[in-house]
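Lab meeting prep.
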Amino acid sequence: MLATKISDITGIWKQYQGNPLFAPSGNMGFIRYNADGSFALGATPESTAAPRAPFPSGTVRFADGRMTMQVQNAPPTMPECARAVYEVRVIKMGQRPVALYYTPVEDTCKPRLADLGHVLPYIGPAR
């Protein structure tokens, strides 16, 4: 299903993270989407509970079937990584979310394009 509101993606998802600054185990980290539209990446599901440098964090909003992502701590040397627009599909088994799949609409941030080029498996609810 196409995500059209934050509640469609609220939860914790496992995410490929190719940036060596993050140094997640096996290049796998996590992203948490919260019901208030905020998000945070981290090395463990628990570390996504609050924004933590050097991992990206920010907000998302939905309009017309597209998610706009604003990164609050994008590196000053990479202004192209401050904003992105995606179509996000939620893969479900019955009513249970299984994974997210991102299709870029507007994004020139090469590291993010590479990281979100993989399916993100669902880990659990954001509490």
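Slide two material, second protein:
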Amino acid sequence: MPEDIFQQELNRLRLEPLNQVAALKLKQAGIADHPAVLPVFRLMEWGLATGSTLAQVRTARELLRLRHQRDQRSALDYLLANIPGGLPDLHRRLLRLPPRSAAQTLLDLLDLRLKADPKNPYPAG
């Protein structure tokens, strides 16, 4: 994917409600936006970096994989597959939470996604 098309797709994805909520939480936390990273992944990275989670190594590894995946639409789709309560419910929950709790909620979502993935080499145990 050429760089300008990649950036256009990132800009389009930034307009989705989940990324808008994540951008708001980053702003509340005083964290600068990064033009090459979707806000949802930036918030999750910040959650890991601030030690607000006891996420396992595989969760951190998968977050890095998703963040660096060239097709960010697919990365978001993977994260958001089969969300308990649906995406609108997730948006509402995140809006009510402080930034650290929002980051933790997203990391927990990724951990649940990993545990539910039949291709996951690290099954829950």
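Talking points for slide two:
Residues 48 and 54 are 8 Å apart (CA to CA).
The chain has seven helices and no strands.
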